[in-house]
Amino acid sequence: MEVNVSMIPAARDGECNAYLIERNGEFVLIDAPEQAIDVVKKITNTGKKLTALILTHGHFDHIFGLKAIEKVSGAKVYMHEAETSMLRDTSMNLAGLAYLPGTFPVYTGPVAALHDGDSLTIGDITYQIFHAPGHTPGCICIVMGSMIFTGDFLFKSSIGNTSFPNSKPQIMEKSLQRFLEKFGNSDYTLCPGHGEKTSMERELKYNQFLQ
Predict the structure, then answer these.
(1) pTM of the prediction?
(2) Is residue 56 over pLDDT 70?
(3) Three-state SS letters, 68-119
(4) Helix (H) or strand (E) segment spanning residue 51
(5) In angstroms, rounded to a whole number, what is the distance separating the alpha carbons of residues 65 and 18?
(6) Number of domains the chain contains
(7) By CB count within 10 A, which of 5, 76, 77, 141 is most buried?
(8) Where residue 109 sits, what CATH number does that domain have?
(9) Which pairs count as long-range contacts for 149-152, CB under 8 Å and 24+ apart, including other chains?
(10) Strand order in 76-80's β-sheet?
């Protein structure tokens, strides 16, 4: 059976996408924005299973639904080891800028730590982890077949913001160079955390940050 990948689009401007991957009735979710909660509830209500939730990084818009999704599904949560502290720190995940104290749904459950180069096999699908720090210390891209889920590392015609407290512009430049060296010779479909899907071929032509 084929792998089905669907984007859960941002509910409002400025919010993030999530991606739902399904094969043989088993689901994996990339990122956990608020709008993904109802989607996961519908899955579990039909008796199907969300097996895993892989987070590209720890900014609040990508983790708002984490607590509710893990509770309703029991999915195993994965995140890069350098990022896990952001789940509980509302100053670092920037929730403190958008929510009143005590109102953000902080997740305190278990997290399986990921590392650069890890191969994560869920069901019969393998996900390759590419550590891409710069936007945040533990920002990752997730490679599945001919698709790369780039989170807030790489967008259509742009890259992730490096002006946040734990962002590092120089490290972002090194991550972009490594990314090009590893993936630049193949035409992957790029699935970013914000905005439209794009392709490696297009970004090599039009994204000034990859020139």
Answers:
(1) 0.97
(2) yes
(3) HHHHHHCCEEEEECCCHHHHCCCCCCCHHHHCCCCCCCCCCCCCEEECCCCE
(4) strand 49-54
(5) 11
(6) 1
(7) 141
(8) 3.60.15.10
(9) 149/19, 149/30, 149/56, 149/191, 150/56, 150/190, 150/191, 150/192, 150/193, 151/31, 151/56, 151/57, 151/62, 151/192, 151/193, 152/16, 152/56, 152/57, 152/59, 152/62, 152/192, 152/193, 152/194
(10) 4-8, 18-23, 26-30, 49-54, 76-80, 112-114
Residues 151/57, Cβ–Cβ less than 8 Å: yes
Give the residue ranges of DSSP H helices in the chain. Answer: 36-45, 60-63, 66-73, 95-98, 169-183, 200-206
Provide the residue range defining the domain that includes 127. Answer: 4-210
Q: Rounded mean pLDDT of the chain? A: 96
The two three-digit tokens of residue 78, written as one number: 């994965």
Confidence of residue 1 (pLDDT cuts 50, 70, 90): low
